[in-house]
UniProtKB/TrEMBL annotation:
Classification via SUPFAM superfamilies: P-loop containing nucleoside triphosphate hydrolases (SSF52540)
Taxonomy, superkingdom: Bacteria
Protein name (database record): ABC transporter
UniProt keyword terms in alphabetical order: ATP-binding, Nucleotide-binding, Transport
Residue span, ABC transporter domain: 13-236
GO cellular component: membrane protein complex; plasma membrane
Keyword hit for ATP-binding: yes
The keyword Nucleotide-binding is assigned to this record: yes
Amino acid sequence: MTTDHASSQRVVVRLDGVRKEYGDTKALDGMSLEIRAGDAVAVMGPSGCGKSTLLNMVAGLDRPASGTVEVNGQDLGELNETGLALFRRRHIGMIFQFFNLLDDLPALDNVALAGQLTGTSARQARRRALELLDELGVAGRKDTYPAALSGGERQRVAVARALMNRPALLLADEPTGALDSRSGEQVMDLLIDLNQIGQTLLIVTHDPQLATRCAGRLIEVADGRVARESTREPSA
Ligand SMILES: Nc1ncnc2c1ncn2[C@@H]1O[C@H](COP(=O)(O)OP(=O)(O)OP(=O)(O)O)[C@@H](O)[C@H]1O
């Protein structure tokens, strides 16, 4: 893919002059960035620099004091809380360090529920959930409850759940942070595969290996702003 082609891709995330303070702390201090369809972006930076705040803004879990956040062409500032929740379910998939699966539902239901919450019928949602678990290599664990899954299996189920509604954007917050190195590498390979089939990724991490392996763009944040940005050619 040439640079010209890449720059013509649709904008999936646009932050413009986003500010957020907690008391005297400037968590985001006029942050602007753009992520285009098919990008795999890693956000790195020291503890407290504003990474989680950025992720929360993009996910519509928090609102800026000023500036705008646009995801998939929607200005999130125009949505009320119900609208934001609906938008998030439909357009954004999220995976977390500690998986955030529902303990009292087996793997298949954890995934299918994400579809049912956006109005997909139970039967259709279960069919798609099973396909996703199969693609991610955990279909054999469909009836297993999260507590009996390994960390790597839990994260695969969480990825399946995040993909259920074919999100425009997959957000990942330290997705390998709680995994042993082998499971972590498998999740990295999975993220690379997803990006290669066109999934837009935004990954927040402290792990340079995760960032360099999975992301073609690295954004370094310091003091609530983009301090440095670099790109590399995707590995063949
Ligand atoms: N709810 C909150 N109340 C008060 N201060 C907050 C809150 N959330 C974040 N902060 C402060 O805002 C700044 C940015 O926090 P943020 O969590 O975004 O950083 P981070 O880069 O994600 O850190 P880490 O890498 O440690 O997770 C920090 O100084 C933090 O203490």
